[in-house]
Amino acid sequence: MLAKVRSAAVQGLDAYPIDVEVDVGGGLPAFAIVGLPDTAVQEAKERVRAAIRNSNYEVPARKITVNLAPADVRKEGPAFDLPMAVGILAATEQIRAHLDGTVLLGELSLDGGVRPVAGVLSIALAARALGVRALIVPRDNAAEAALVEELDIYPVASLGEVLRHLEGEVSLPLVRATPDSGGTPEFDVDFSEVKGQEQARRAMEIAAAGGHNIIMVGPPGAGKTMLARRLSTILPPLSWAEAIDVTRIFSVAGALPSGAGVIRIRPFRSPHHTTSAAAMTGGGPLPRPGEVTLAHHGVLFLDELPEFHRDVLEALRQPLEDGVVTVARVQSTATFPARFMLVAAMNPCPCGHFGDTGRQRLCSPAQVARYLTRVSSPLLDRIHLHIEVPRVTPAVSCRALRGYPGSSAARPRGATRALRGRDRVQRRDVPEADPAFLPAR
Question: Mind listing the pLDDT tens digit for each residue in 170-216?
Fold first, then answer.
């Protein structure tokens, strides 16, 4: 007896259809999954057995063969649990259901519950392009699947609900696409909280207006990280198309919060300086999005820039130049979008106090030179704005808090002069503004 259930998988950011073919025949009891499954798919055998049994159905004591077609593409993840269980019950005639035109996705728990999976938005977009009418997804994935119009989205919480719906005993509630409300995003921080640092604030406003990359050089405690974290609050809001792109990326990466719909806030990613090149650009046996892709349409903040490994920094050249990153592996190659604002921060020397009028410098000129050469010139050429961020004196902070137009603290010009051979902070070779960051008119 044979049954076929439609499902889908994600490769890169794009989804492709998968046919889950189930054959139940004679022979010794066995459960085999073929079609290049990974470990998570192979472990589905035990999850499916327990879920069927705890949903008051029977797993036949016969030879069960599950084929995931096409068989020349590696499959990963637990999203095939639900179609496997439905296929086994349909092949053994425990249910009678019309499965054409319906795509099923979901991870099964041992008690028969359906858990959320990654990449549902990409699968919904691909299903609409293929003319699929209905999509049965876990309840926690319904909000993101409903962002795609012209699809009937059926959220489910258990295997029993799916089976009763397919047999026509009950009708699951439909979740339709909702129109974009276009509300104003809310932030935990605000750019207006920055007191003093007039030069740095002006540079950040220029960077936000044109989508320019920027690097800040200054001693510890000058406010570089504080400025970077508040940059997103003055960027133009995401358009609907950009919001769909960001949501799709976070869905594929498994970083979308459970039950969340569209993401309306520009991403802000701040990876640690021990991040590997694969984590930064994307990687894995089947390539997954990295930090540069998770920062698409948003901000990638690299604090302590010289502390990053050299290969990690050099891997940023292609995405900064082209707005995409191509990840090649033995099994597959994927191209991910990576159009982001790079905001970098660094100390002027290993001790951090070169040019700081308030602290004594502990580094020799040779140590300062070696420290600054950790960032290559080709990478610096792709950063449009270079700015010094001096330490704010208590007097300036008090005047700023009282509302008086305080003057900036003494500017330590040595750091940028050593970095760029310039006498002062300046705007250099700023290209035309990126249209993606310009406010809508």
Answer: 888 888 766 555 566 778 888 888 887 889 999 999 999 999 999 99
Structural domains in the chain? Answer: 2-166 (3.30.230.10), 191-437 (3.40.50.300)
Tell me if 311 sits within 8 A of 354, measured CB to CB.
no
Distance CA 155, CA 417 (A): 60
Phi and psi for 42 in degrees, rounded to 5? -65, -35
User: Is residue 255 within a helix (H) or strand (E), and if so which, with residue range?
Assistant: none
Residue 254, number of CB atoms within 10 A of its CB: 13
Burial class of residue 148 in the structure, from the number of CB atoms within 10 Å of its CB (0-12 exposed, 13-18 middle, 19+ buried): buried
Phi and psi, residue 322, nearest 5°: -105, -20
Residue-level length of the chain: 441
How many CA atoms does the CB half-sphere of 283 hold within 13 Å? Answer: 9
- 83-117 pLDDT, tens digit per residue, is 999 999 999 999 988 888 899 999 999 999 999 99
**pLDDT at res. 432:** 54
Name 324's bridge partners: 337
Check residue 402 and give its pLDDT.
Answer: 57
Calpha distance 308→291 (Å, rounded): 14
Tell me the CB-side half-sphere exposure of residue 45, using CA atoms within 13 A: 16
The dihedral over CA atoms of 390, 187, 180, 205, expressed in degrees to the nearest 10, equals -20
* The two structure tokens encoding residue 383: 């950063």
What separation in angstroms does the CA of 214 have from each of 60, 211, 247, 300?
A: 63, 9, 26, 11
Cα 224 to Cα 271: distance, rounded to the nearest angstrom: 15
Cβ–Cβ under 8 Å, residues 338 and 382: no
Is 226 strand, coil or helix? Answer: helix
Which residue, 216, 212, 236, 233, is CA-closest to 225? 216
Phi-psi region of 76 (alpha: psi -120 to 50; beta: other; left: phi over 0): beta
